[in-house]
Amino acid sequence: MSNDNHYALILGSSSGFGKSSAIQLAKMGYNIFGMHLDVGTNKKHAELLAEEIRSYGVKCLFFNKNAADEAQRKEIVAILKEELINDNDAKIRVYIHSLAFGALGPIISHNREELINQRKIEMTMNVMGNSFLFWAQDLFLENMFCENARIISLTSSGSIRAMKGYGAVSAAKAALEAYTRQLAVELAPYKITVNALMPGVTDTPAAQKLPEFQRLKEVSASHNPYGRNTIPDDVAKAIALMIDEKSYWITGQTIGVDGGESICNAFE
Question: What total number of domains does the chain contain?
Answer without folding.
Answer: 1
